[in-house]
Amino acid sequence: MSVSELSNEELPGYNRAAVEAWVGEHVPDLAPPFTWVRLEGGHSNLTYELLDTEGREAVIRRPPMGELLPKAHDMGREFTIISALRDTPVPVANALGYCEDPSVTGAHFYVMSKVGGRAMYTPEDVEAWLLMEARKRMGESFIDTLAALHSVDVAAVGLDDLGRHDAYVARQLRTWYGSWTSSKDDAAFDDKRIHELHDLLQSRMPEQGPARVVHGDYGAHNCMVAQDGNLTAVLDWEIATLGDPLADFAYALNGWGDPGDGEGSVIAGGATTAPGFEDREILAERYAAATGADLGQLPYYRAFNYFKSACILHGVYARYQAGKKSSEGIDIPQLFDRMFRSIGFAERAAAEL
Fold first, then answer.
1. Which of 37, 195, 220, 328 suits 169 as a labelling partner, its CA being 20 to 30 A distant?
2. CA distance 286 to 112
3. Helices (H), the chain
């Protein structure tokens, strides 16, 4: 994460005195007062590094300010998941304390240990952090970590009630197709390919196996990576739930840019387009070997995820077009282009069924 220094007074969303008093009472591993440093890249959650009086580091997170959707930015969910995964092979930060009393600072928040490493957003991040040999290792660790997550016994770690166990793809397909159809007027854009893809995906839906924890946004941007290429932690668990692990894997695979993808890719310019990373085919083989998963239906799951991405981007585009969200500093044509290309990639994947 990139870091920006803040003065002690510039802490939007946090009542410094109240938060430090709460942490002092409930988190014995930390000794306030703290030096606060804003951490960027937290997906709009207000995320800060805390440095205590004894030089110990931690991270605090709370939702963004303003009105939120009922299930958005669920800090309690994140805290529950990283607490449950702490003793599994999945690397996560240590959960230190969760405050469910919004009177302290206006929202729920939690504190976790600070984990070493860096998240990879761009090829420039990779060039500055990872030598060539470490990039191959990062790909291996990336897949091994996801395979470990999808192998967790949800009942054994207390996550059996994290979500429904059935019909994950069916529910997602219904939700995001509904988003597209309800947004098309505000977007002033529709595309018959979306409707054709929806019908195809609905008719060819694979049967789901046992439900596993699915991260929902697993990618290089949400993983902390050591300089040797090993993942030190997976971050941002707020949309994790129980579901179909192959859908989660295909999402990660779609987001893993191969160096040869070029400008036509949905994720052109992504971190893993830098030289030295394994390609998607090698990663898929490693995942199958680690989990025993049958990847015969992988094209379906990749098409589903591209379809879902297109619907999400369409909804965002619609809000900008309708003036429901400020577009200041937003590249609207690029947003539209990403949506349009996602549809094309969904078609290509579906053609492999």
1. 220
2. 31
3. 16-26, 75-85, 123-129, 132-149, 168-187, 192-203, 245-255, 280-291, 298-321, 332-350
Structure tokens at 44: 């709009």
Plot region of 219 (φ>0 → left; ψ -120 to 50 → alpha; else → beta): beta
Contact predicate 164/242, CB 8 Å: yes
Q: Is 3-113 in CATH node 3.30.450.20?
A: no
Name the token pair of 316.
């965002």
pLDDT digit string, tens, across residues 56-105: 999 999 998 755 444 556 899 999 999 999 999 999 999 999 999 999 99
Task: Please tell me the distance from the alpha carbon of residue 167 to that of residue 337, in angstroms, as a whole number.
Answer: 31
Question: Domain extents for the chain?
Answer: 3-113, 123-350
Question: How far apart are alpha carbons 129 and 245 in whole angstroms?
Answer: 30
Give me the count of residues in the chain: 353
Position 135 scores a pLDDT of 97
> Looking at residue 69, what is its pLDDT?
44
- Alpha-carbon span 93 to 224, nearest angstrom: 10
Residue 262 confidence (pLDDT): 54
Closest to 345 measured CA to CA, from 296, 304, 285: 304
Tokens 């110990």 appear where?
56
pTM score, two decimals? 0.92
pLDDT score, position 141: 98
| Local structure of 302: helix, strand or coil | helix
User: Among 105, 101, 106, 61, which Cα is nearest to 79's?
Assistant: 61
SS3 41: coil
Distance of CA 190 to the CA centre of its chain: 27
Q: Which residues of the chain have pLDDT under 70?
A: 1-9, 41-43, 66-73, 259-269
At the topology level of CATH, where does 123-350 sit?
Aminoglycoside 3'-phosphotransferase; Chain: A, domain 2 (3.90.1200)
- Give the per-residue pLDDT at 266: 58
Position 82: which residue type?
I
- Decide: helix, strand or coil at residue 4: strand
Cα separation of 185 and 352, whole Å? Answer: 32
Q: Which tokens hold the place of 204? A: 């060819």
